[in-house]
Amino acid sequence: MVIKRLLPRLLAGLSLFASATLLASAPPVMAGAPLDLSAYKGKVVYLDFWASWCHPCEQSFPYMEQLKSRYGPDGLVIIAVNVDHSRDRANSFLKRVGSDLTVVYDSEGVLAQRYKVHDMPTSLLIGRDGRIRYTHLGFHPEQAANYNDQVAELVHEN
Q: Who contacts 6 (Cβ-Cβ below 8 Å, separation ≥6)?
C-alpha cells in the first residue's frame, strides 16, 4: 500500500533527476510539486508570474537574473511561475531569454488564482517573515531603481 503511494513520487523524482542530469543547461524546475513557500522562511522571495506570450516578461527575465546575482548571496530567492498551457512554449521562451531561474509550471492556474494574479508579469516580493510586502503589476524598466530599493530593503532587514 505504501509502495503504491510512494512509487509515482519516486518515479517522478527519478525522471526529474534524469532530466536535470541530461539537460544541465536547463533551468531548475519544481514541476509536479506544489509550491511551498514555507520552505523559504527566513529568505526574501521574488515570486514572478509570467507567460511565453508576454513581451514585458522578456524584459523582466534579464532584470531578475541581475537581482539573483546581486542579492542571491544575501538571501534572495527568485521563483518564476509559468502560466502557459504549453510547457514547450515556456521552455522555448526560457531558452530564448537564456534563463537559469527556478521555474514552477502552473498550467492550471492554481497558483495564479491563489495569489490573485491577473496581469503578466506580476511579481510578489515576500519578506523573510513570509508576508507579501510589495506587488509589481507588469514590468516597467523605468521603475527598476524602485524595485531594487524594495529588494534591498527586505534583504537587509533583520
A: none
Whole-angstrom Cα distance, residue 105 to residue 101?
A: 13
Single-letter amino acid, residue 85: H
Closest to 26 (Cα-Cα) out of 135, 130, 106, 101: 101
Using DSSP's 3-state secondary structure scheme, residue 43 falls into coil
Residues 44 and 127: beta-carbon distance below 8 Å? yes
Q: What is the per-residue pLDDT for 142?
A: 96
Question: What is the rounded average pLDDT of the residues 68-95?
Answer: 95
The answer to whether 38 and 118 have CB atoms below 8 angstroms apart is: no
What is the value of pTM for the model shown? Answer: 0.80
Rounded CA-CA distance 145/73 in Å is: 20
- For 37-65, b/e burial (b = at least 16 CB within 10 A) is eeebeebbbbbbbbbbebeebebbbebbb
- Distance between CA atoms of residues 13 and 9, nearest Å: 6
Q: Report residue 16 as a C-alpha cell.
A: 526529474
